[in-house]
Amino acid sequence: MVRPGWRASASLPGLRLSGNRDVNRHISCVAAACLVFILAGLNAASAAILMVSVGGQTVSYTTGQLLSRSDVTTITIDKDLSYPGSMTYTVVPLAAVIGPLGMKAADTLQVQALDGYVAELPGDSVLNVSRSKPIAYLAIESPASPWPNLPGQSSSAGPFVIVWTGPNAVRQQWPYQIASLTEAPPAVQRWPQLAVGPEIGTKDPIRHGQTLFVSYCFVCHQLSGAGASNIGPDLGLPMPATQYFQPAALAKLIRDPALVRDWPGRRMPPFPKSILSDRDISDIIAYLTYKAGGAGQ
Description:
Layout: H1 21-46, E1 49-54, E2 57-62, H2 63-67, E3 73-77, E4 87-93, H3 94-98, E5 108-113, E6 118-122, H4 123-126, E7 135-140, E8 160-165, E9 178-184, H5 187-190, H6 205-217, H7 241-244, H8 247-255, H9 278-292
Parallel strand pairs: 1-9
Antiparallel strand pairs: 1-2, 3-4, 4-7, 5-6, 5-9, 7-8
Helix pairs in contact: 6-9, 8-9
């Protein structure tokens, strides 16, 4: 691609063509070669590299390598979470990328985005291939067909996005602008601050809130120093969020932060009821309230 305002020319800047036809031809060839080199460099710069650290090994995949796989296909997402309306992606099954490397279902796939966003995806979810459950795909942005810019932003969702198909796909995490995928133990094992005590049963709303917190809040917020992302404020330090927000106000903030307060550069999105029900938000607040009390820490 040539920058606007540039014009390809047979002559090099600062050189005057002589009357010798052979010399002119030589200079023209040099100019053409330089132009091809520039264009090739620009094209190469637009390609991306995905770093994958799974199963004790680290592998890098270029955009071209992923697009040339035999299992590459296209899917259309009717209600895309990154773009309004529907979106068609070129994809490969995520399980086919990380499974052969040795990804374990009991572990977590940590997804690092270019902007510091860090998602924690359960291993059993990203390895699933059954149509009875959501199936994860790695969407690849082709330099030849770039995606549109995200709404209100100056860049697309690329170079890589994780998208889902199947039942309840909307409730999964859809990280975009992905830079790397890394296998790791579950977040609760890496950060004991997230744990709940043994007195909290498996069906207790507090434990359910813990699961939801890791899935939806932990991608941007730390809790008492636990977490890999710091896009948003720590919800436990220096003062727990439940101590300076009334429960009703905190619930409204989680549902749609603009309903409570707004600020330039706000990045926290609203969570419609199709993603987080009222009960889900109540359980997240119950978990944060429990952690603010210091129990189980």
